[in-house]
Amino acid sequence: MTSTELAREALPQKIKQTIKRSLGPWGVFLEGFMRHPVMVGSIIPSSRFTINRMLKPVDWANCKLFVEYGPGVGTFCRPVLDRLPRDGQLIVIDTNPLFIEYLRKTISDSRFIAVHGSASDVEEIVRAHGHEKADYVLSGLPFSTLPDGIGPAIAAATHRVIRKGGAFLVYQFTPKARSYMARHFQRIDDALEPINVPPCFLWWGWKDEDED
Ligand SMILES: C[S@@+](CC[C@H](N)C(=O)[O-])C[C@H]1O[C@@H](n2cnc3c(N)ncnc32)[C@H](O)[C@@H]1O
């Protein structure tokens, strides 16, 4: 191959990288979506309205461990770290290695841990990082497109891992997740956030102090 042919072949690659760099986190999210559309489930990250509303009921003063499933490019990570106490910890779990690598590169906060794995292994992951229970778990998982049995298994493991008084925070475009939550969480608050693409349901499943 001549040098002119080599240069011609490298050009589309260069253009792709330039576009990706100029899009910042959006470019990484788009690439993650194009590689695994079913697992990512959405083409646009959550809006700040969704973030603020979802995080509002959290009792931050009593939050030592916050876990997030499916952080993507970290839309929720910085807002969670901004609210988390200095001695708290945020563990995020995502099956997409591209997102985990991006988060490790871009978030340098000693309270932040990015784990490449599945939310269904949350109990082992929490234990491996020295905790018995999580105070809150947040999920951006596309429950309606997860492989059979995974959604119910994640809801069950999440209920076991949350301490009494804590909660499971879920945002979703379809009501599927709520049906999985309702098998374990006796009290679920809900809302609809219209300023999000598309508008999304928000649920807070509370693990009350007087539960068995
Ligand atoms: C809709 S995106 C979430 C985007 C992001 N949290 C936001 O607010 O914009 C769903 C994410 O869930 C991840 N995911 C899918 N299945 C998973 C699983 N079993 N465990 C952990 N993460 C998973 C995908 O890789 C993707 O990053």
Structure, described:
- This is Methyltransferase domain-containing protein.
- InterPro entries: Methyltransf_25, SAM-dependent_MTases_sf.
- It is a single chain.
- The chain has helices at 3-23, 25-35, 37-40, 48-55, 77-83, 97-106, 122-128, 150-161, 176-182; strands at 65-69, 89-94, 112-116, 134-139, 162-172, 187-193, 200-206.
- It is α/β, with parallel strands linked by helices and 212 residues long.
- It has two domains: 3-35; 39-206, Rossmann fold (3-Layer(aba) Sandwich), CATH 3.40.50.
- It has a seven-stranded mixed beta sheet with strand order 3-2-1-4-5-7-6, with helices on both faces.
- Bound molecules: S-adenosylmethionine (SAM).
- Residues 39-42, 45-46, 69-72, 75-76, 93-96, 99, 118-119, 140-142, 146, 150 line the site of S-adenosylmethionine.
Summarize the structure.
With 212 residues, the protein is an alpha/beta fold.
How are the elements arranged and paired?
Layout: H1 3-23, H2 25-35, H3 37-40, H4 48-55, E1 65-69, H5 77-83, E2 89-94, H6 97-106, E3 112-116, H7 122-128, E4 134-139, H8 150-161, E5 162-172, H9 176-182, E6 187-193, E7 200-206
Helix pairs in contact: 1-2
Bound molecules: S-adenosylmethionine.
Domain Methyltransferase: 67-166
Pfam families: Methyltransf_25
Protein name: Methyltransferase domain-containing protein
